[in-house]
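Fig. S4 source data, part A: sequence.
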Amino acid sequence: MKLCSIISTNLKFSTANRNELSSSLNNFCSLLYIYFYHVLSNIKREFNITVTHKRRHTKYLYSFFLNIKGGNLIMDMRICVINIYVSDLDFAIEWYREVLNLNISDENNNYPIAVDLETDNDLRLLLHKAEKDTQVDVWRESSTILTFEVPNIREKIKDLTEKGVKLMNEEPQWHPDGGERIAFKDPFGNVHELAELRSRAAPKDRI
């Protein structure tokens, strides 16, 4: 099981070529935007199929390449830490280790206020002491949900159920971005999700 994350890339170029490179990439991206827009339009016309959001997709690609400042390909902000607030830090450490197989990291250990959990990427996942549990109605109120990717969602559901975890749905729900998801709560009211990400399939192919 792994936490789905956002990754930012930082590419550096020599100072002498920054202005020239930035100008060249701007021109290249303008041509690339036009090219992909026409390719998608031709696919739609030639094969009589619907290509959804073609303008939005090409805009994303165009904006990505244009996000070059001073020779660096950067993002203005990146997610570096996710805090999970819990009312009992010791119990939370045990629960996240025994139920979700997330062990405590030796780095940035600030017990008894907060501890880091080990993840398979650079994104820090932090258990942080709080005064009380959360009572958020996740389907009716604004909230943030962590999604953990698993290779087999039904096997993981069985594992969590046997460990007494409260699931928010009776069955996994098909998600528009492809794959199935199911939400569950930790003992402190925080809502997380399991996700088995797959390519989009027709309804008859969904299991």
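Fig. S4 source data, part B ends here. The domain at 133-207 is CATH 3.10.180.10 (2,3-Dihydroxybiphenyl 1,2-Dioxygenase; domain 1).
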